[in-house]
Every structure is written in structure tokens, then in C-alpha cells.
Amino acid sequence: MLAAALLFTLANILIKTLRPEYTVWHIGFFRFFGGMLILVSIFGFKGNPYKGDNIRLLIIRGCFGSIAFTSLITAIRLLPVSTALVIFYSYPAFSAICSFLIYKERISMAGILSIGAMIAGVAVLFDFHPDGGAFGQTLAIIGSVFAGLTVTLIRSLRQNNGPVIIYLYLCTMGSLVTFPGFITNPIFPVTIVEGLMVMGIILTSVMAQLLMNQGFLYCKGWEGGVFMSTEVIFTALVGIIFLNDPATLKFWIGGLIVMGSGLMLNRGKAASEKSD
Q1: Stated pTM of the model
Q2: Domain boundaries defined on the chain
Q3: Which is higher by pLDDT, 162 or 104?
């Protein structure tokens, strides 16, 4: 999960440094269609790469993941980044709710506290102010809800499917969702550097998603969400180290709270397993 969060951070940096002409539809299509081509070319020679367990749920999860991605990116365009990210990173809470409603999984007090601490840490880290329009905030909430539902379904799918096929269906459905927006105003890399950046987005996204899918074999959806929240710490560190952002007091406080939520979660799990 930590390795996946780090790779997602690298993908975010590449997306941020692309020309502003690249919209969410361009970024999404390159990411999803490129990932689909890579996975099919590597694993397709063994047979039908789309053969898996519970195809219907794989398709549904792919659609939900696409909605979460496009909603988040659009919300970031409409809202201050801090507002969009803090709302979005509440998705472990929605994942816990979905786990209870769908699978009747109960969440321990340590889990509730770790989710609350994680959301509070992200809010401190990004100096949260609920600014922006209602439409952008609604999109951020929609992205968070669907992200929570997505990671819950990954947990279920991972029992009988490998990480590759889960991401392949996400890439396929994401390609279908983003293609209409991409084809209405197609943009392609015009320089070698820009081409390498787009390829970097594809490769880091593929590796990050596969690692995340693999991680859900060992933890529940909301637990994985708590660990994935370290992405915001990695992003802030990159800004401090490479972009000369100041290492403010709120960074250290927020970062420690986010990391503490993961430690709190691990401690609660260890105590529960020892009791069992």
C-alpha cells in the first residue's frame, strides 16, 4: 500500500506538470487506454486476458473507479486543491459504511478512531477551508463515495481474481468513459519530453494500481484507504524537497496525525488478531 501511494504520487506530479491543454478526458484516456494496451500485450499471450471470476462485478467496479477518477479530477479543477483532496480522502469512511452494508463487516473502535484521525490529519496538512462552489464540492463527495465503494469491491474481487485482471477491467471501462471527451478534441504529445511524461503517467499508474490491488488481499477496503492516505504526505514531501515549498508546522502536525492513524490501525488489528 505504501509503495502504491508513492507511485501514485509520482503519477500526480507528472499530471500536474503537463500542459494545461490536457483535460481530465485526455489524461484519463491516456492513463486507461495505455494501461489496457500494456496489460493485454504482456498477459494476452497466455489466453483471454479478460477471463476472470464474477465478470459482472469486475465491470461494475471498473465503472465505479472511472466515475471516482473523473469526479476527483473535475473537482480539483473547480475547487481549491485543499478542499477537493480533504473531501476525497474521506473515502475510507465511505468504504467502512459500504463494507457494513454489503458484507456486514463491523468496524472496531480502533478503526473508527484511525479513520477520524486520518481525515483530521489530511485537513491539517492542506489547511482545509471549505471554499468553492456547491457543484465542485458535490463532485468531490461523489468521487469519495465511489472511491470507497471501489476499494470495498476490490477486497471482494481480490479473493478469486489477480491484481492484473481487476485493473484491466478498470482500464477498459475507463477508456470507454473518457474516449468521447478525448475524441472531441484530441491532443497528443508534441515533444519527446512530453511523450515520456505521458508514458510515465501510464507506467506509474499501472504499477501503483497493481500494487494496491495486491495489497487488498491482506486488508479490508477502509484499512487500505487509511494506508493509501500517506499519498498526501509523499506529495507534500516532494513539494518541500524539489519545489522549495516550506516545511511548515501544519505539515509536521498533519503528517504525524496521518501516520499515527496508520499506526493506530495496525495496533488495533494486532490486538484483535492476538485476542482471536
Answers
A1: 0.79
A2: 2-271
A3: 162
